[in-house]
From TrEMBL:
Gene3D superfamilies cross-referenced by the UniProt entry: Enhancer of rudimentary
Superkingdom assignment: Eukaryota
Protein species of origin: Homarus americanus
A UniProt-annotated Pfam family: ER
UniProt family annotation: Belongs to the E(R) family.
Gene name per UniProt: Erh-L
Matching SUPFAM superfamilies: ERH-like (SSF143875)
Protein name: Enhancer of rudimentary-like
């Protein structure tokens, strides 16, 4: 079974580091798209 961990550091300081845990790459990509859509509404798909 595949397992995907997304590591994110949105700011320059190490304190901004976080992670998200997903069961698959596809689930990770969907979660990333949902997280970014409110920031960039023009990228909405469907």
């Amino acid at each position: 079974m595949a397992h995907t961990i997304l590591l994110v550091q949105p700011g320059p300081k190490p304190e901004t580091r976080t992670f998200s845990d997903y069961e698959s790459v596809n689930e990770c990509m969907e979660g990333t798209r949902r997280a970014l859509t409110p920031m960039h509404p023009i990228t909405r798909i469907g």
